[in-house]
Hints:
The chain is an all-alpha fold. The protein contains 5 helices and no strands. It has helices spanning 2-14, 17-21, 45-51, 55-68, 87-111.
Amino acid sequence: MIIFTASGGHASTNFGQYDQYGFPPNYPALLRGKPPNSKEKEYTEQDVMAALPTKDTMLSSMTLSKLLSTKNTDSLGEYETQFLYDQTSVNALRTFKRTLNEIGKEINVKNRVRTYPYVRFHPDNIPNDISI
């Protein structure tokens, strides 16, 4: 559970942010003006446009979501420094990497026939830690 929370869980939460927030009208970081207070009033496109954030605010929101959506560390199972030396740990890591590789191959095969490739939980796209 700890490995998943610090890798896959984090990746699933953060790495899709730009897909959603990269176009601010989808999910604006803030809205200007007073919130609607009547269900009867019809709002126009001009009302919506006036409520959207300024271009500078939108750009800041897009930049932040892009930063949070970027993988900045090695993939799960890959480490810059080797800390495992005892044979039991080395074997466990080797088995873990082999399993991740098999999962990745299976996803790649299935992605060949998918309209929209499944990339979110591909082992290559999951970081080995949280890096914010």
